[in-house]
UniProtKB/TrEMBL annotation:
It catalyses: 2 a phenolic donor + H2O2 = 2 a phenolic radical donor + 2 H2O. The active site is at residue 66. Ca(2+) 2 binds at residues 190, 240, 248. This is Peroxidase. Belongs to the peroxidase family. Classical plant (class III) peroxidase subfamily. Belongs to the peroxidase family. Ascorbate peroxidase subfamily. The lineage of its organism: Eukaryota, Viridiplantae, Streptophyta, Embryophyta, Tracheophyta. Substrate binds at residue 159.
Amino acid sequence: MAASKRSVVSCFFLVLLLAEANAQGLKVGFYSKTCPQVEGIVKKVVFAAMKKAPTLGAPLLRMFFHDCFVRGCDGSILLDSSNNQAEKNAVPNLSLRGFGIIDDSKAALEKVCPGIVSCSDILALIARDAVVALEGPTWEVETGRRDGRVSNINEVNLPSPFDNITKLITEFSTKGLNEKDLVVLSGGHTIGMGHCPLMSNRLYNFTGRGDSDPSLDSEYASNLRKKCKPADTTTALEMDPGSFKTFDVSYFKLVAKRRGLFQSDAALLDNSKTRGYVLQQARGSTFFHDFGVSMVKMGRNGVLTGRAGEIRSMCRVRN
Ligand code: HEM
Ligand SMILES: *[C@@H]1O[C@H](CO)[C@@H](O)[C@H](O)[C@H]1NC(C)=O
Ligand SMILES: *[C@@H]1O[C@H](CO)[C@@H](O)[C@H](O)[C@H]1NC(C)=O
Ligand SMILES: CC(=O)N[C@H]1CO[C@H](CO)[C@@H](O)[C@@H]1O
């Protein structure tokens, strides 16, 4: 009797512990009973789209970062402007694209399990699938997010490519992400492009004396000056030249060689902890594993679960 009572009690605590473990109600396989096909359906849409347009992978990964850093991962980046200007109209959205892939995934899911899967979860799955499609790592995506009803351009306060390391560390820590997460997630810049005006200060007149950024490798700087002329606002550069369509470890090799594109990339060398992680990641042994871990952590930021928010029927508009 005593023994069975004790096991009931310890079982109770085990359940409590497990409930605690999956942050705020997220878990792997949240839809395993209500929409078991969800992951397969999303993956099929993403892979089909990326087969035609592999460069879509980068903005899709970036979109999840922008969603999670503003109001939490609640799909607010997906809402179109209505009575107010939405997040997606803010300047850093410059190159966000691929919204159609979220729409297509949602439409496919609504046919099979209507009203079940949130747009914020779809985006979390798409970010993972986009990385897999570019030969990067895979990880188990926690689901169970619900969609927010608000998206406001005035709330967009994302890390800037001009930020120094102190600012970056603070910005990430307010989202529950530490120095290691900052370095690992910056590795997302192993794919995709960045536009000249976000870095050309590093090439021309860095301190007002017609100089370039001393933290940028000078040979690399002269190559970049050929591509970005002083007033060029439209050219985009490969952030990881040579393999910008492959998710690999070369971003860290570049940063370690002082060839990171943005000041925010170069800044990772300015703190002993983040510098240590850059050099460690450049050796390549743990980046793929670490990236999944940090993506899951980022995906827990400010989520709506349980009865909060809603399940949108179309990702661009609230119900
Ligand atoms: C550490 C702070 C970060 C800053 C300051 C930053 C800044 C930027 C900037 C300025 C661009 C270029 C946008 C353009 O010119 O169109 C960019 C592109 C990109 N970022 Fe970040 N980013 C950061 C972190 C992240 C994270 C955490 C991820 C995802 C894990 C990410 C993924 C990407 C990707 C994939 C692109 C390429 C997008 C494309 O090709 O369209 N970034 N980022
Ligand atoms: C980093 O940037 C912040 C705000 O942009 C600034 O206040 C601070 O002085 C800078 N720190 C260093 C070490 O340059
Ligand atoms: C460089 O910056 C300084 C100070 O802002 C300015 O006076 C000067 O005209 C600039 N030179 C060039 C070549 O743009
Ligand atoms: C895709 C998208 O919504 N792009 C918008 C980004 O923000 C600018 C204004 O800063 C708009 O003009 C774009 O339409």
